[in-house]
């Protein structure tokens, strides 16, 4: 019996660096992803990758996922350590997602491996939590739940309003006549070597003074004495507001305002959260200046990676834009057996 598990990547339309303080986000799955194919008649996990070097060769009782090599195998090991499957998996990993570009290639690998190893009976929330724990084990990054929850809960044609405190997921259909565009700055970054963990710690320090940032207003944020923490908290509190403003703009079909909100989000991530890069700023302004595009912003953690834009579905975009995907929201991760 051959098992094939597919997990899509995700792009976040708005609401970045809000999930780890229980905030709001509006991501969606895209049509690029990770496929794991194999059979279970083995008591090891042995996976080769069509894109990455080395073999993931792991016993079912692997414990220290972070010590495994090659480095991509750490995510596989993290899943094995969380799931403790009775049977192994021998097969291949194939990916159409670029690595380290803010499209959740690691979360897609975790969820596809988990499904191939028999986690299909878990609900979307449980499966997402398992993926997040696997990521923590693999690379020690204190990431939030957005990536994994989007991949397990995606709804074709809709973005997802995620409440990262209650973990509720509300599908928000995209207005007719609009496409989502993902453009690649060409700059890679590994979360583990980025200021991500520093930002998580800065938010925790702001919360020690203000209480949960989810319950704080932008005005509360201004009361913080430390100028760095004030800017971080200003980003998080205003970004939570922009998520619901974008949901409302989509419901009203007001794409001009939707674009403005994305641009404001980019400025907040660049100036208050210091999560952009010169290449990303340049790409976002190039996208914004393109006829047919309503708005653009960096997406995911930042410090390199991709930008996301909303574009009139009838617009032809210039060929010199580094577009790697264009379309409507895709469906969730899934597994098939043959
Ligand atoms: C990464 C993390 C997510 C989230 C984003 C920023 O993708 O894995 O949990 O924090 O950055 O919004």
Describe the structure.
The protein is α+β, with helices and mostly antiparallel strands. It folds into 2 domains: about 5-170 and about 330-335, Ribosomal Protein S5, domain 2 (2-Layer Sandwich); about 175-325, 2-Layer Sandwich (Alpha-Beta Plaits), CATH 3.30.70. About 35% of the residues lie in helices and about 25% in strands. The chain has 9 helices and 13 strands. The protein has helices at about 75-85, 105-115, 125-140, 145-155, 195-210, 220, 225-250, 255-270, 280-290, and strands at about 5-10, 25, 25-40, 45-50, 55-60, 90-95, 160-165, 170-175, 180-185, 295-300, 305-310, 325, 335. It has a 6-stranded mixed beta sheet. A 4-stranded antiparallel beta sheet has the order 10-11-9-12. Strands 2-7-8 form a 3-stranded antiparallel beta sheet, sandwiched between helices. Strand 4 (about 45-50) and strand 5 form a beta hairpin. Helix 1 crosses helix 2 (about 105-115) and helix 2 (about 105-115) crosses helix 3. The model has no long low-confidence stretch (mean pLDDT about 95). Alpha-D-galactopyranose (GLA) binds near residues 147 and 300.
Q: Strand share of the residues? A: 15-25%
The assigned structural class equals alpha+beta
Shape-level CATH architecture of the largest domain = 2-Layer Sandwich
Low-confidence stretches: none
**N-to-C terminal Cα separation, in Å?**
6 Å
Helix content: 25-40%
Strand count = 13
CATH topology of the largest domain: Ribosomal Protein S5, domain 2
Using the CA coordinates, give the radius of gyration: 19 Å
**Number of continuous helical runs:** 9
Order of helices and strands: EEEEEHEHHHEEEHHHHHEEEE
- List the ions, cofactors and other small molecules found in this model: alpha-D-galactopyranose
Number of domains: 2
Largest sheet: number of strands, sense, barrel closure: 6 strands, mixed
Spatial shape: globular
Please, what is the average pLDDT? 97
Biggest sheet: strand arrangement: 5-4-6-3-1-13
Please give the CATH class of the largest domain: Alpha Beta
């Amino acid at each position: 019996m051959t098992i094939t598990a597919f997990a899509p990547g995700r792009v976040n339309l708005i609401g970045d660096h809000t999930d780890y303080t229980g905030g709001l986000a509006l991501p969606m799955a895209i049509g690029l992803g990770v496929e794991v194919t194999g059979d279970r008649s083995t008591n090891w996990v042995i996976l080769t990758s069509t894109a990455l070097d080395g073999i993931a060769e792991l016993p079912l009782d692997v414990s220290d996922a972070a010590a495994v090599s090659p480095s991509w195998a750490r995510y596989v090991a993290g899943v094995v350590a969380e799931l403790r499957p009775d049977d192994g998996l021998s097969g291949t990993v194939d990916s159409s997602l670029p690595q380290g570009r803010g499209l959740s290639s690691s979360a897609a690998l975790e969820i596809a491996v988990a499904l191939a190893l028999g986690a299909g009976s878990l609900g979307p929330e449980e499966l997402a939590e398992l993926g997040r724990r696997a990521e923590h084990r693999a690379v020690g990054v204190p990431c939030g739940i957005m990536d994994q929850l989007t991949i397990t809960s995606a709804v074709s044609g809709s973005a997802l309003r995620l409440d990262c405190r209650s973990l509720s997921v509300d599908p928000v259909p995209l207005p007719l006549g609009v496409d989502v565009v993902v453009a690649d700055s060409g700059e890679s970054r590994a979360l583990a070597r980025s200021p991500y963990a520093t930002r998580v710690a800065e938010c925790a320090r702001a919360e020690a003074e203000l209480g949960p940032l989810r319950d704080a207003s932008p005005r509360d944020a201004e009361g913080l004495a430390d100028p760095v923490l004030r800017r971080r908290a200003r980003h998080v509190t205003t970004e939570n507001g922009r998520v619901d403003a974008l949901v409302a703009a989509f419901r009203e079909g007001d794409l001009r305002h939707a674009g403005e909100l994305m641009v404001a989000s980019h400025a907040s991530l660049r100036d208050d959260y210091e999560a952009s890069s010169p290449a990303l700023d340049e790409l976002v302004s190039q996208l914004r200046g393109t006829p047919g595009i309503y708005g653009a912003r960096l997406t995911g953690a930042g410090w390199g990676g991709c930008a996301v834009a909303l574009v009139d579905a009838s617009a032809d975009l210039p060929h010199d834009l580094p577009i790697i995907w264009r379309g409507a929201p895709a469906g969730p991760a899934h597994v098939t057996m043959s």
